[in-house]
Amino acid sequence: xxxxxIAVEKIPMIQKGDNLSSIICERIELQDRDIxxxxxxxxxxxxxEIFRLEDIIPGEQALEIAARTGKDARFTQAVLARSREVFxxxxxxxxxxISGHTCVNAGVDESNIEHGFLLYxxxxxxxxxxxxxxxxxxxxxxxxxxxxxxxNGRAFKIGQTGVAIGIYKIKPIKRWIGEKxxxxxxxxxxxxxxxxxxxxxxxxxxxxGAGGIPVVVIRGLDYYFEGDASVKDTYRPENLDVIKKxxxxxxxxx
Length: 254
Ligand code: GDP
Ligand code: MN
Ligand code: MN
What we know:
Blueprint: E1 4-7, H1 20-25, E2 35-39, H2 40-46, E3 50-52, H3 60-69, H4 73-81, E4 83-88, E5 94-97, E6 102-104, E7 117-119, H5 125-140, E8 145-152, E9 161-168, E10 174-175, E11 191-192, H6 194-206, E12 215-219, H7 242-253
Parallel strand pairs: 2-8
Antiparallel strand pairs: 1-12, 2-12, 3-7, 4-5, 5-6, 8-9, 10-11
This protein binds guanosine-5'-diphosphate and manganese (II) ion (2 copies).
């Protein structure tokens, strides 16, 4: 068994309004059931999610948090603008974004963007993935899956990894429940986070720095799913999320 991960070379610096699907299709001949993995950074750039730090006016909550934590109030405002709940303020802001993704700084980024600018994360990454997927399918004439990725930290472990924040035509979770293990025992709980695993694999070629590889195509794994899929299916329901419950308790105490 094997699969390929192919870096799409020579993608330019992406600007607001750029047509990512044609930029990609001009640089790689896509095949049926390819999984096109796109860094959220370039999706956000194309969608114009670029803001000048000095233009951001901090609101009351941002000023309060900044006073408590010593962080830049404008950066704090940018994070709050994309957050629906704040769990941790310092040493980093851990939030759930408006689209439901829980991560540090709501994905607002100062890296791989010009000095003095902030790059927000795509506001509805599933919708961005669907739009890109439909255009890529139309331009290439192939059946494709798309994953938009970002680099996220993990609870309990040092080191960040690529994760899926938006998807198109791929089920993000592979359920092993009901399948047998090597000894014939029926698996009862295992669900494999395949979209995150693919994002992690692609991130090995993207890296985090000046590599200039924001698109990777995974070929040879069949996860194509002809139907509605949402990364939101991977967010643990509120009543079962013990970590969020714990963090809310801590916030009340402080
Ligand atoms: P994120 O994980 O989505 O936040 O994206 P990163 O900032 O980690 O960048 C992932 C990859 O995309 C790295 O190889 C960057 O050098 C590259 N990258 C970021 N922006 C651009 C761009 O506008 N053009 C090109 N060609 N590469 C970019
Ligand atoms: Mn990022
Ligand atoms: Mn990254």
